[in-house]
Amino acid sequence: MTSTTGRVVAALDGARLWAELHDLAQLGARTDGGVARLTLDDNDIQARLWLAEQAKAIGCQVRVDPIGNMFVHLPGTDPDLPPITTGSHLDSQPTGGKYDGAYGVLAGLAALRAFREAGVQPRHSLEVVSWTNEEGMRFAPGTSGSACFTGVRRKDETRALTDADGISFGEALDACLTRLGEAGIERCPLGTPMQTFIELHIEQGPILERQGAPTGIVTGIQGVGWFECEVRGTANHAGTTPRTARQDALEGACALAAALRNAACDDEDLLRFTIGRFQVFPGSVNTIPERTLFTIDLRHPDAGTLTELEARFQALAAQEWAGCTAALTPLSRIDPVAFPEVVTDVIAEAAAELGQNAPWLVSGAFHDAIHLAGHCPTGMIFIPCKGGISHHPSERIDANDAIEGARLLTATLCRLAM
Ligand code: GLV
Ligand code: MN
Ligand code: MN
Ligand code: MN
């Protein structure tokens, strides 16, 4: 290990990182031990203000861009060079855990603090980012901040999204920006250049835990398509309408859902097919359903397979199901990415330097890094989570893995920024 990397990694305060993860989890804490910090709600705003306080304590400037992404900046010796950026997201699922997203932001802060403590100023500036609305639960689809930052989605489109109460993303964002402004947080432009982006995250799957590895090097992220399927039938009296006269939208939806799932099963090893929301209207015990809505989350590491399956799904939706008609609407599509070797090799070298056994793996979950990969050389580091469980209050990580992940991030930043 070079003496500089050694000094910075040695200055990393793992106990403080662990304590801060649990301090932050108080903002939006659920009684079951989980976290509900929905995009741009009061807990999310409190978390942003908390991040700004931590950054100021390290002597770093904090700025916010027009979509609400927050950047903590540690200046390098050459101000003309683009920053090396790390980070993740502070929003959570409604029944989320303490570490999904938050871990990557807080470990980034811990790394910046380690540079300060070691008295090392890198050549490139270092930045920690917290992207807005990764989860997409209050405003769908997610990854809004990183998608707008990289030009994958338009800001006006995103501002027009509404939550279940009819509040627009734009209204909620403006209220948040006002509060951040009152706290003295300055604005910065959208889509500024980055030298490299590294996201550290919990794996949200079982692979690293099964391998007994404290960290993993992510080779890429599989692609994902979200769809909404509507099945239309005819409402009528549940007791009097004979079978031959029924167009039951739930019966049609069940048959179509089973056919879609069967079509997806051809490639069971790699393909992921999930119906996560199913709604029946009018939702009366003694009325035949008139309309059924369900969502599909479809994932595969190959873009061509996703496209082929979408065509097969459309063909199935065009058929008649129990006398009902159906329509399949794409909600969002993100193509798979492979991270470049110029980044994964640097992470691998840093892991070797730290003596870590860091296997290579593909990410099953999407992350903001999927968009950043089109903006600058990007990579990801994973740590295990207990039982592979996430998006649930029982999400857990091991303190030692959390510290090893932060050490690997810090050593990687040293290699990239010096
Ligand atoms: C995002 O968390 C996903 O669904 O992969
Ligand atoms: Mn996440
Ligand atoms: Mn998540
Ligand atoms: Mn995610």
UniProtKB/TrEMBL annotation:
Zn(2+) 1 binds at H89, D100, H201. Residues 220-320 form the Peptidase M20 dimerisation domain. Its cofactor is Zn(2+). Binds 2 Zn(2+) ions per subunit. Zn(2+) 2 binds at D100, E135, H391. InterPro entries: Amidase_Cbmase, Bact_exopeptidase_dim_dom, Peptidase_M20, Peptidase_M20_dimer. The keyword Zinc applies. Coiled coil: none annotated. It comes from the Bacteria. The keyword Zinc applies. Keywords: Hydrolase, Metal-binding, Zinc. GO terms for molecular function: hydrolase activity, acting on carbon-nitrogen (but not peptide) bonds, in linear amidines; metal ion binding. Belongs to the peptidase M20 family. This is N-carbamoyl-L-amino-acid hydrolase.
